[in-house]
């Protein structure tokens, strides 16, 4: 019997309380429960995490790097979104 | 998230003739930018990296076999637990690397099948037998030491997923080398027989370990383009020399003799080894090493015997998915 390819999962780990989950890598597993167990064995052998998320890779929609110029242009041209754009007199002190 | 976006691979290959894109790609490499899976890349870059990363992954997986040989016979519970953890790490390294290779567009199944069919290679070093407990010390000290030498520059490799995998691997590899050296220190401080066992292991592993760095620069096939693409940062001979210079003092501390009577130290302090027997290297690479057949047989057996588990997990997942759909429809 030909076994279908085992699905791919992306693994996110929260390393300490207060920090966000961070992408650490991917793995193959047949279902979510096995993906969680495999993520523990592959990515947290030295106490790297307090919490794991696994997400089917197919559920992720990614932006196209070839379009990154157009995609991020609106942020590039708006320097007034940064605090350093504004002048505050020295006498006022730290703000 | 990386792999399936590679259905763009075909378009990328068609664009191979686009000199403009190739020049842009090289400019990004020269500017030390990292190449990510969805970026345009020359077909040869993809092919070279797929081959290199998957070979690296196969090596980690086959590398579990010579050491696994001693888990049940480790001399103490402490040594056993450490060896077990090390072998488990090698498996993890293989899995990080397969994941990185897959981002270039091959499936895990294709990569593993290529190895089992004998079409993909793994490191020559794992075709040597582990005859005594001292071999486990020597592997950690020298084989993992050589691997670290080779892998540290790979943390800055131009291909992002490979570089990131290497960072994780290098962090863990340091424990491997230290546990190996500790075994050697213990043997060398032990009885005459134990010290002789350590020397015997060094005698058998020294030359195969030097071969791990690959053919001499003058005859290496893949070096030029790999250097241009910043996959490779140092040549085979440069890394080999670094390794020898780092290792000789460690052997001296142990009171062991490097099995190379022709070795000399030059004016700059570099230890110069004698000529390496490259016919042996070629023999091992073409399948005629002491353990090639055993290693392949063990991998194939494990894969075949695990087939029912993969099938059961797939059917269980399919059944559950079906039930969920049915429930949702009610």
From TrEMBL, chain A:
Gene3D superfamilies found in the cross-reference section: Phenylacetic acid degradation B (3.10.20.520)
A matching Pfam family: PaaB
Stored InterPro entries: PaaB (IPR009359), PaaB_sf (IPR038693)
Entry protein name: Ring-1,2-phenylacetyl-CoA epoxidase subunit PaaB
Originating species: Bradyrhizobium yuanmingense
Origin organism lineage: Bacteria, Pseudomonadati, Pseudomonadota, Alphaproteobacteria, Hyphomicrobiales
From TrEMBL, chain B:
GO biological process, one term: phenylacetate catabolic process
Domain of life: Bacteria
GO cellular component, one term: cytosol
GO MF annotations in UniProt: phenylacetyl-CoA 1,2-epoxidase activity
Protein name from the UniProt record: Ring-1,2-phenylacetyl-CoA epoxidase subunit PaaA
Organism name: Bradyrhizobium yuanmingense
């Amino acid at each position: 019997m030909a076994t279908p390819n085992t699905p791919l999962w992306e693994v996110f780990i929260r390393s300490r309380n207060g920090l966000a989950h961070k992408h650490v890598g991917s793995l193959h597993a047949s279902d979510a429960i096995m993906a969680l167990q495999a993520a523990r064995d592959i990515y947290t052998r030295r106490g790297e995490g307090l919490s794991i998320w696994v997400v089917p890779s197919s559920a992720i929609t990614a932006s196209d790097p070839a379009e990154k110029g157009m995609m991020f242009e609106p942020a590039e041209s708006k320097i007034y979104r940064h605090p350093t754009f504004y002048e505050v007199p020295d006498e006022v002190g730290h703000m | 998230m990386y792999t399936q976006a590679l259905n763009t691979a075909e378009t990328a290959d068609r664009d191979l003739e686009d000199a403009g894109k190739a020049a842009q790609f090289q400019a990004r490499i020269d500017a030390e930018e990292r190449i990510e899976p969805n970026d345009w890349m020359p077909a040869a870059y993809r092919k070279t990296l797929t081959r290199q990363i998957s070979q690296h992954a196969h090596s980690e997986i086959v590398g579990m076999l010579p050491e696994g040989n001693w888990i049940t016979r480790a001399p103490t519970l402490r040594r056993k637990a450490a060896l077990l953890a090390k072998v488990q790490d090698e498996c993890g390294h293989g899995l990080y690397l397969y994941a990185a290779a897959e981002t270039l567009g091959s499936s895990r199944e294709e990569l593993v099948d290529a190895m089992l069919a004998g079409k993909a290679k793994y490191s020559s070093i794992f075709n040597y037998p582990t005859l005594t407990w001292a071999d486990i010390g020597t592997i950690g000290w020298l084989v993992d030491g050589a691997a670290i030498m080779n892998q540290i520059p790979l943390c800055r490799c131009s291909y992002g997923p490979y570089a990131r995998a290497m960072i994780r691997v290098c962090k863990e590899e340091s424990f491997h080398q230290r546990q190996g050296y500790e075994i050697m220190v213990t043997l060398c401080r032990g009885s005459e027989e134990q010290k002789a066992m350590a020397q015997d292991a060094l005698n058998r592993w020294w030359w195969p370990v030097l071969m791990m760095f690959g053919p001499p620069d003058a005859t290496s096939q893949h070096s030029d383009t790999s250097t241009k693409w910043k996959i490779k940062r140092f040549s085979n001979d440069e890394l080999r020399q670094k390794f020898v210079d780092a290792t000789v003092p460690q052997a001296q501390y142990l009171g062991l003799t490097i099995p190379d009577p022709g070795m000399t130290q030059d004016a700059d302090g570099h230890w110069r080894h004698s000529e390496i027997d490259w016919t042996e290297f070629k023999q091992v690479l073409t399948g005629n090493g002491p353990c090639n057949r055993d290693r392949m047989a063990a991998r194939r057996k494990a894969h075949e015997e695990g087939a029912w588990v993969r099938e059961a997990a797939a059917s269980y997942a399919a059944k559950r998915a079906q039930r969920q759909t049915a429930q949702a429809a009610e």
